[in-house]
Amino acid sequence: MKQSQIFSKTIRDNPKDEESVNAKLLVRAGYVEKVMAGVYNFLPLGLRVFKKIENILRKEMNLLEGEEILLSALQPKENWLATGRWESYDTLFKFLSHYSKTEYVLGPTHEEIISPLAKKNIVSYRDLPRYLFQIQTKFRDEKRAKAGLLRGREFTMKDLYSFHSDEADLDEYYEKVQKAYEHIFEKAGIGDLTYLTFAFGGSFSKYSHEFQTLTPAGEDTIYICDTCKIAVNHEIIGEQDSCPKCGNKKLRKETAVEVGNIFKLKTKFSEPFGLKFKDENDQERNVLMGCYGIGLNRLMGTIVEIHHDENGIIWPESVAPFKAHLILIENSEGEIKKSADEIYNNLLADNIEVLYDDRDLSAGEKFADADLIGIPWRVVVSEKTLREGKLELKSRKKETGELISYDNFAKAIN
RNA sequence: CGGAGAGUAGUAUAGAGGUAGUACACGUGCUUUGGGAGCACGAAGCCCGGGUUCGAUUCCCGGCUCUCCGACCA
After folding, report:
1. For A358-386, how does the pLDDT look when each residue is reduced to its tens digit (9 = 90+)?
2. Does CATH place domain A322-412 in 3.40.50.800?
3. Which bases of strand B have any atom within 7 Å of the beta carbon of a protein residue?
4. Domain A7-309 of CATH type 3.30.930.10
5. CA of A115 to C1' of B26 (A)
6. pTM, rounded to two decimals
7. Which nucleotide is closest to the Cα of A368 by its C1'?
């Protein structure tokens, strides 16, 4: 993609309506634009990152044998009355049709939709287990949206729901999802700072598990066992004041953001919707359920919170909008562009995702924008590099670059 | 939802009871090209409603919006 053609522009000043690092950088670099508190538009650069994250998630969901579906965002009140969450779910967006005076819900989560759906397709033990996931927009009427992408009123979530005939099967799958989540956060570049965290389990389980990433931008407090590399959420520290694994009492207090959670719902939703199956002995039994969520916006914001410096974002390669940022520095005769165009076309032909800064701007401004946008590899073409018959390659993580031939360059970044 | 702060051009800000200035961005022309280039000219602005006042963008009240702290967060 040519930068002269890209829809968004970089902004030099920090926006006055954002305080969080992730929002400041993502807005300034042109990844997102704020519509209102907790609601953002995704611009071409931002959508590219979003799709990279989506694909990481989708790949892991497929490995978990998840089948992808897309559930309704607009939901009937009756389903929420059935579970009692019409009254008890405090961030529920409810609204009234002006014509029919019918009340609706904008879905904050999808147990109320997927449980009745599952009921239509799960009737026998032969239909179990089942694993269904979606990547879809959620709406939550947060009393206070905050921290840029970390807590929004509209956001995209990957939610996986599993259906089982017995607890052993649920437990086994739950463990698999836990491992898959570890892969996901590793792949997304935040594995080192992300802890499996024991949290409140609700009425059916002793614990649920959260994945908490250490960052001052987070709003949760967790207690880490450095021996086991797991943590306990402060909400249960009263009853669980030692490491659940090794019993260590010396836990380290940290601030973190919840980037994912896994939860054994058991029969919490199958009961109100009558989601049952016939077992091998013709006995009718409740289906057991698990749910597993990851918020994409929050994950994207968290990655920025973790990976940036004073000049801008430093994307992990797995989620970067492009692999290489090709920068043309023209000379007074205007004779560099031809070579830069050629290199751009070679990169495209070699299937290297490249953003080409072909704009008529000073070198300093292009470098500053490149640092802000944060593409992993910066490739400079200038009079200096052409004289040597080479390119200058610099990692966004490093201070200086090196001159390298095109052939070696393609190898170097792969 | 409670508390605090803030709303001035596309963006970021300055400012005064007498209708507004700067920087960046933008347009035109020239010049320039390795860390946010230069000159000239140009276009563009006081959140909404009420009150006080001869006069309010400025002071007061209310609203709306945003940010932060707290509460809340299956």
Report:
1. 999 999 999 999 999 999 999 999 999 99
2. yes
3. 1-2, 6, 8, 11-13, 24-25, 32-37, 65-74
4. yes
5. 54
6. 0.96
7. B36
